[in-house]
């Protein structure tokens, strides 16, 4: 058997674009033909006219019809970027923003970061010449803090609106105000829709002057009107249309080949095992064609990836080989494009994806879909004020989107790993995120934008009053809001500037006072990525031993810091050696060293690298804010006290039977087996994450002294007792 290409080094596996000029011409020609054959190509002229004629346009079109990659180019060609203005396209997911930007840059034959670029949290590839800018919905919301009228943009395309992320929902509310304010600005032409009075948010205040939403009318300021395009893969555009006063919706006809959907006879106890069996069953029994597998997150993807790689060696010699390609949000961007490249000759590509591949990105070549039927979602209990991640069954709409991915280029097959009767029990569609998440982050941003009346804000769909109040209360307890619910200065204002969860922003601000900002920066970076450690089932003892040299008896936070610093030291040492030797291929060599070290220590090198990037980005913000980055050195007590002061809302006390009781919510929780404090006897702990499976597990746990809570968070703990 030939060795399977290792995806750890993408250069070896799927060949990058090293084409001769002849190849390049052929490739360009192929790409042009492919673009011309997309369903959207035949309605190009009409779509551009629709955008010109309507300030708000809703475009519904099946996944793969060309909405995301083509519409921005059509509008650019139609002159929407004259005067240096920008077409902004928002995506709910980071990977989509990056991969689509790369694809469009290639289609336009420009370098990424020039005319076409992307900007996501912790990674920006735009320049002053960028005219087509892909970004996450969350990032555009942040931009509004600096430029409330979004004056750089001539068109904003809110893509994947059916996903209904909390950022998309709030962004639409903000855009509603911006549209009105800009269409009424003196410089812009008053346009058709404002004459129709399409937007129901113009209201008189006590003095009789008009304000539009929370933005002042920009009299005297010169803004051209803004165009808003909302794109969705779901057929039901009514909610968006209604919200924008009966805005026009158009539908692009898609092309879908038949997909044969198969179910299991019985429910599967272990859906990862069932996934593995199905992948190999397809591989051995079905005709050539790539397989797309939907999993719930990085951890599952990586464990299935390892399992496939192990089993591939037992394939009969005559059969085609398999290459696995992961795609999930925190994957380093140079690896994300691997999913789109054709498999090498003689290989079948198995793409292991999160629900990113449902509608956000369209990967060519898929003929088989494996759908275990689950998705990881946020869930929020407003009474307890606890947000958690839960793995839940998909909705019917999601299941249909997933199976649809098999029929893009020809007839395909979808393997649902549950019995058919289960499908009927699924919810029709997913509940919008705004109804199942902690709102403190979004409220902080709205407050920073000047929206004081959160309950009165014109949401697309209102979150529950209880959730708003609980989140306001949390922000108040973190010191971000004053007694009369205004943004506090400087704490609240500084917290809103940081692109982090309010609780982490506050931890950084506090850490500068506790002299341990260096430690907290590493902590927050490491907590921002998924699964630093991995434990292959068959090597769990080895993994445990390897982990021991990083383990801190105090808990996971210091353990994570130990890992980060050990990697840093290793790289620094190697860098010194390599510099002395006048080495070429410097970056590649250090990468290789880091990967080897990670493998030996059962550390996820992808996550660690991501944490490094996050670290340097946050450090940039912190330094800009003038916070002092210093280390507490060996004084671990100081750091522990800072953790208690920062995460007092997530403290828990040991119960007689070994479980813990979360103090804020009263919930009974267990320490997750992956924690270094699993089986410890710590009396009082703080934690950062709640994960619900059959049990409520807490992760990232550190022991603290209960008295620190009453000393450092008296406003809360005095209230409790
Ligand atoms: P939509 O937004 O309507 O779902 P897209 O514009 O994302 O559709 O994709 C249109 C087509 O472009 C897809 O059918 C897919 O085959 C192709 N495509 C998109 N991104 C890439 C990529 N990175 N590499 C190769 N093909 C791509
Ligand atoms: Mg799209």
TrEMBL record:
Q: Does the keyword Nucleotide-binding apply?
A: yes
Q: What is its EC number?
A: 3.6.4.13
Gene Ontology terms: biological process: mRNA processing; positive regulation of transcription by RNA polymerase I; RNA splicing
Molecular function per GO: ATP binding; double-stranded RNA binding; hydrolase activity; RNA helicase activity
* Catalytic reactions of this protein: ATP + H2O = ADP + phosphate + H(+)
UniProt key word Cell inner membrane: no
Gene Ontology terms: cellular component: nucleolus; spliceosomal complex
Segments forming domain Helicase ATP-binding: 48-253
Residues in Helicase C-terminal domain copies: 278-450
**Pfam families membership:** HA2_C (PF21010), Helicase_C (PF00271), OB_NTP_bind (PF07717), WHD_HA2 (PF04408)
Alphabetic keyword roster: ATP-binding, Helicase, Hydrolase, mRNA processing, mRNA splicing, Nucleotide-binding, Spliceosome
Region span, Disordered: 1-36
**This protein's name:** RNA helicase
């Amino acid at each position: 058997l030939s060795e399977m290409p290792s995806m750890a080094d993408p250069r070896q596996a799927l060949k990058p674009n090293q084409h001769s000029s002849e190849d390049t011409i052929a490739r360009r020609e192929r790409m042009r033909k492919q673009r011309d054959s997309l369903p959207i190509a035949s309605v190009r002229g009409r779509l551009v006219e629709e955008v010109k004629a309507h300030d708000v346009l809703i475009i519904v079109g099946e996944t793969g019809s060309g909405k995301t990659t083509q519409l921005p180019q059509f509008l650019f060609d139609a002159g929407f970027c004259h005067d240096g203005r920008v077409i902004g396209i928002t995506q709910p997911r980071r990977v989509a923003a990056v991969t689509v930007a790369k694809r469009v840059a290639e289609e336009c034959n420009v370098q990424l970061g020039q005319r076409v670029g992307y900007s996501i949290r912790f990674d920006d590839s735009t320049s002053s010449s960028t005219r087509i800018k892909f970004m996450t919905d969350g990032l555009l919301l942040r931009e509004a803090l600096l430029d409330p009228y979004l004056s750089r943009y001539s068109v904003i395309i809110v893509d994947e609106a059916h996903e209904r992320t909390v950022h998309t929902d709030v962004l639409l509310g903000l855009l509603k105000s911006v549209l009105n304010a800009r269409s009424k600005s003196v410089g812009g032409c008053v346009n058709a829709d404002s004459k129709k009075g399409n937007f129901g948010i113009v209201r008189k205040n006590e003095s009789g002057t008009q304000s539009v939403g929370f933005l002042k009318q920009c009299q005297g300021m010169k803004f051209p009107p803004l165009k808003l395009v909302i794109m969705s893969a779901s057929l039901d555009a009514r909610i968006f249309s209604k919200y924008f006063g009966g805005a026009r919706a158009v539908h692009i006809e898609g092309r879908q080949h038949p997909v044969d959907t198969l179910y299991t006879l019985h429910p599967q106890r272990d859906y990862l095992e069932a996934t593995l069996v199905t992948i190999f069953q397809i591989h051995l029994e079905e005709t050539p064609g790539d397989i797309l597998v939907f999993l719930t997150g990085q951890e599952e993807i990586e464990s299935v990836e390892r399992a496939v790689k192990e089993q591939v060696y037992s394939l009969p010699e005559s059969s085609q080989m398999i290459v696995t390609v992961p795609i999930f949000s925190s994957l380093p961007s140079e690896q994300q494009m691997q999913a789109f490249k054709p498999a090498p000759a003689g290989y079948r590509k198995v793409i292991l994806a999160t629900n990113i591949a449902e509608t956000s990105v369209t990967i060519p070549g898929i003929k088989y879909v494996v759908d275990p039927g689950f998705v990881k979602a946020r869930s929020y209990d407003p009474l307890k004020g606890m947000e958690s991640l839960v793995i839940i069954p998909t909705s019917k709409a999601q299941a249909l989107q997933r199976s649809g991915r098999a029929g893009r280029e020809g007839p395909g097959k979808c393997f649902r790993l549950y019995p058919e009767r289960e499908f009927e029990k699924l919810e029709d569609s997913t509940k919008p995120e705004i109804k199942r998440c902690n709102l403190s982050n979004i409220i902080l941003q709205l407050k920073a934008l000047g929206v004081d009346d959160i309950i009165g804000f014109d949401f697309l769909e209102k979150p529950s009053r209880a959730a708003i109040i609980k989140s306001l209360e949390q922000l108040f307890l973190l010191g971000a809001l004053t007694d009369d619910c205004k943004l506090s200065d400087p704490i609240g204002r500084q917290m809103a500037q940081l692109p982090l969860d309010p609780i982490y922003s506050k931890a950084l601000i506090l850490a500068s006072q506790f002299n341990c900002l260096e430690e907290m920066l590493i902590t927050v970076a490491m907590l921002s990525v998924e699964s630093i450690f991995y434990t292959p089932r068959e090597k769990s003892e080895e993994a445990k031993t390897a982990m021991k040299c990083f383990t801190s008896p105090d808990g996971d936070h210091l353990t994570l810091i130990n890992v980060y610093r050990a990697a840093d030291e290793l790289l620094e040492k190697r860098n010194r050696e390599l510099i002395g030797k006048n080495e070429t291929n410097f970056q590649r060599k250090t990468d290789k060293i880091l990967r080897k070290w990670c493998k030996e220590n059962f550390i996820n090198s992808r996550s660690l690298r991501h944490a490094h990037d996050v670290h340097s980005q946050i450090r940039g913000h912190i330094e800009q804010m003038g916070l002092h980055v210093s280390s507490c050195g060996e004084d671990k007590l100081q750091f522990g006290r800072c953790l208690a002061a920062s995460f007092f809302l997530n403290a828990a006390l040991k119960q007689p039977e070994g479980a813990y009781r979360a103090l804020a919510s009263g919930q009974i929780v267990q320490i997750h087996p992956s924690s270094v404090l699993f089986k410890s006897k710590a009396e009082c702990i703080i934690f950062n994450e709640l994960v619900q499976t059959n049990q409520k597990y807490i992760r990232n746990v550190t022991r603290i002294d209960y008295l620190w809570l009453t000393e450092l968070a008296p406003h809360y703990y005095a209230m409790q007792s």
